[in-house]
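User: Hi! I'm working on a homework problem where we have to compare a predicted structure to a textbook description. Could you give me the structure for the chain below?
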Amino acid sequence: MEFIKDTNIKFSARRKNFYLISVIIILIGLISLLFQGFNFGIDFAGGTLIQLKFEQEEVTVAEIRSALAEMNLATSTIQSLSPNEFVIRTSQIELEERKEILEKIENKIGPFEILRVEMVGPVIGESLKRLTIFAIVFALIGIILYITLRFEFRFAITSIIALVHDVLIALGILSVLQKEITIPVIAAILTIVGYSINNTIVIFDRLRENLKLKPRTALEEIVDLSINQSLSRTINTAFTTLLPVLALYFFGGTLSDFAFVLLVGITIGTYSSICIAGPLLLELKKKGKKPVKAVSSTNQKAKEQQDIKIIKKTKKKKAKVK
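Assistant: Happy to help. Predicted structure tokens:
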């Protein structure tokens, strides 16, 4: 079922507006990265994570921090998940010290249930950071090779720019909101890369077909036509994908951050596939050699009329000769 039919939106004409919106969002994210950085989770930063659920209905962060201060851990990160559920991140502590901390919290605040305890050394955390970077780089290299073989190099470059655009915006939002960077969050970012490139390839497929079918049409018109033809499919796919992700975000518990990154990524990926990838390819095509001389549809009609006139004149001359 198509909810959007027969659209004729001039995406190419508005491309500078789209570029401006993206640049502003990316700059906000980069400023946040410069001043705040990332909130690395236990997987990357190393240390100890303890998730507690208290029996009493309401507990404050200040109460927990006061108890930790007695153990010289007042600078620990405390995240409230609900009025009585908290995640505490501290520097790496030994088993005995952890027992003392938990006893101190119980004596000062009240009984609780330990939901999760994780410990990661700083060496493992640094190793995971390197592996994450390698995974993203290899994914981008694989995408460049695939798209170059399937289309051409300019298509690949455009796709990578759109992907970097999506990842930068997602990372910027994570920095601004200080969401925890964990292994599931990195998995969500890699999922964004795959989702976004899939949408972009669908539009590029249509663009390639239209370039063959309408070789004398202006490139701007071909790009707009291809995006409009794929618009309904792209938005329907995004909408149906968002539904289960929303369910995961609201009811997924510890996977809420993973779902949040997917929500951001699907939205940004859909936007970049429609508003950024096609117009960017247009810019690259204009700078490079055009495979076929592009003329506007108006000029094409004028040329056809001129050809008809020439044919008529030729027939009249032949008739006179006879």
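For your comparison, note the following. Strands lie at 39-40, 47-54, 77-82, 85-90, 112-120, 180-181. Residues 289-297 have pLDDT under 50 and may be disordered. Good luck with the assignment!
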